[in-house]
Amino acid sequence: MPANDIDPYSSSEGLFECVGCGSRQRAASRPGECPDCGGEVRNIAVSRE
Ligand SMILES: [Zn+2]
To answer: 14-43 maps to which CATH number?
Structure first.
């Protein structure tokens, strides 16, 4: 059975918000840092972990 952590057809895509400038973006995996200001980005969509 394949480990499908990233499935483009499911709702696995997360919503991330920068704690620095509040910029939001969607990505399959957590961005290392905000592309706008380089601040910390946190996942605000997925609560299962
Ligand atoms: Zn930012």
So the answer is: 2.20.28
